[in-house]
Amino acid sequence: MRQRIFIIIGIAAVALVAATAALAGTLTTTATVTGTAGISLTLPSNPSISDTLNGADQTVSYAPLLGVVDARGSGTGWNLTISATTFIDGASHTLAPGTVTAVAQACHAGSTCTAATNSITPPLTISTTAGKFFNAALNTGLGMVDVTPTIQVAIPGNSYAGTYTSTVTLAATIGP
Predict the structure, then answer these.
(1) What does the alpha-carbon distance between residue 49 and residue 64 come to, in Å, rounded to a whole number?
(2) What span, in angstroms and rounded, lies between the C-alpha atoms of 123 and 101?
(3) What is the pLDDT of residue 50?
(4) pTM for the full model?
(5) For residue 117, what pLDDT is reported?
């Protein structure tokens, strides 16, 4: 009787293995990933800086968070450029547009990116001509990268009190 139970269990196990093997198969899966045509740049709201004159030369700074998206999938790199007009108060008093003194980067929250390898070293004096302040070398800067430049504006001790404005132009261009 015991032998019969072992034989039945053995036959059942072989049948189960055979049934499982008969149901197995393979699939060849293809993943097609398509990139976008270009890169995009998201700008923050307009920054505001303030200072109280005390007779001494002073420096104020602002640090806009720029969102760069490189979803091209090519790894060909990109550049960030900046230009600005002179700050003017409407009464012909001016301040220089400023200087990019540092640049930080991080992957955008909730995104995987390839950190940019930047070959541009601050400082960069901002002028009316676009100048590169950050770049992503070949095969870097892919995905969503947050770039934060620190821009310092000099307030000379002999400045006039008032509200000054400047138009700052930021751009993302293709190529390292």
Answers:
(1) 12
(2) 5
(3) 95
(4) 0.81
(5) 96
Domains defined along the chain, listed by start: 39-174 (2.60.40)
Q: Which of 75, 62, 84, 51 is nearest to 156 (CA)?
A: 51
Do the Cβ atoms of 81 and 173 come closer than 8 Å? yes
Beta strands in the chain (DSSP E): 39-42, 58-62, 66-70, 78-84, 87-88, 94-95, 99-107, 124-125, 131-136, 143-155, 168-174
pLDDT of residue 13: 61
Residue with tokens 């950190």: 115
Helix count and strand count (H, E) for the chain: 1, 11
Burial class (CB in 10 A: 0-12, 13-18, 19+), 62: middle
What 3-state DSSP class applies to 149? strand
Here the contacts of 29-36 (C-beta below 8 Å, separation 24 or greater) are 33/73, 34/73, 35/71, 35/72, 35/73, 35/74, 36/71, 36/72, 36/73
- Residue 138, pLDDT score: 97
Which amino acid is residue 59, in one-letter code?
T
- Tell me the average confidence (pLDDT) per consecutive run of 10 residues in the chain, 176 residues long: 64 60 79 82 93 97 96 95 95 97 97 95 97 97 97 97 96 89
